[in-house]
Amino acid sequence: MAASSTPTAAAAGTITIGGDLTVNRLGFGAMRITGRGIWGAPPDVDAAKAVLRRAIELDVNFIDTADSYGPEVSENLIAEALSPYPDDLVIATKGGLERPGPGRWPANGRPDHLKEACDGSLRRLRLEQIPLYQFHRPDPSVPFGESIGALLELQREGKIRHIGLSNVTAQQLREAQRLTPIASVQNRYNLADRGSDPVLAVCEQEELAFLPWAPIQDHESHSVVRDVAARHGATVHQVLLAWLLARSPAMLPIPGTGSVAHLEENLAAAGLQLSGDEVQSLTNTT
Hints:
Elements: E1 14-17, E2 21-24, E3 28-29, H1 45-57, E4 62-64, H2 73-82, E5 90-95, H3 111-125, E6 130-135, H4 144-156, E7 160-166, H5 170-177, E8 184-188, H6 197-206, E9 209-213, H7 223-232, H8 236-247, H9 260-267, H10 276-283
Parallel strand pairs: 3-4, 4-5, 5-6, 6-7, 7-8, 8-9
Antiparallel strand pairs: 1-2
Helix pairs in contact: 1-2, 3-4, 7-8
């Protein structure tokens, strides 16, 4: 099927997170509905809300955000645009970073910070429980187990349903799994950067969702991608997203944008069917 047929996110099939949250396998990353540099409000708040509403219209039922996006801006906009939420919508957010200024993202994995961050996300998102709460990045100044322990406490208190990790190694994932069940991992992954293949392999083995961030970056130099796109009458971005979907059943891409047109382009990738040879040729691209 050509990408120009504009299918919805439902065409990507489904994936189950944590054993009980089934979502369409093409979600939306809400980082870029904020201001320039992921700081402050977007230049057009109504346009940002329109993107969120259009995503729901196109069968997106998984939205990923974080308290650090803005900071706080993304979560607030999601609630303003979409609350009360559709019954099938899963909102995932993250905690564990601070934003003292534009371009600054220091880690803070202290248990007290994570608990305060979670409470803030619950309030801004207008949720009684966060379906998937992800530790944004390990903090080298805090024992990893202490940070995970804070998330486990939040889960026991009913504030979060499932625990996810972000920006972790396979070793850190295994360490966390020894402490508590993990539902997902969100790491940088795209055609040009597959450094997280070992983590993806664990996710496949353990039936965890793998959320690739920066899924359509670093593509400009790949002539193979352009050739495949031309063959299908698709865009390069659509090919890159279709490759991710074909790469692994654990993959849950979450491309983000502040533009309705770009959102529609991205979601059309759900209906782009690559041949086995195309997937292999893309995979072999370095």
